Amino acid sequence: MSIGGIQKLSLVDYPGHVAAALFLSGCNMRCGYCRNPELVLPERLAPSIPVDEVLSFSEIARWSAGRRGDFWW
């Protein structure tokens, strides 16, 4: 799995909730309306984000959400 990006705070991807978004590289659809062409075109691909970095962030997010009482996943 090639992780192309992580958005640690999103207020629009899960309406009514604070969320995070993980972007995977390598889609071959090449849609004209794609919001993330840098994850599709090989000449624009950035180095993959290490899985450890994502897991570290998710553990911190889980802990902080659990302290507020609104942890759901």
UniProtKB/TrEMBL annotation:
Alphabetical list of SUPFAM superfamilies matching this protein: Radical SAM enzymes
GO MF term (any one): metal ion binding
Keyword Manganese among record annotations: no
Keyword terms: Iron, Iron-sulfur, Metal-binding, S-adenosyl-L-methionine
Coiled-coil stretches: none
Protein name: Uncharacterized protein
Source organism per UniProt: Candidatus Minimicrobia vallesae
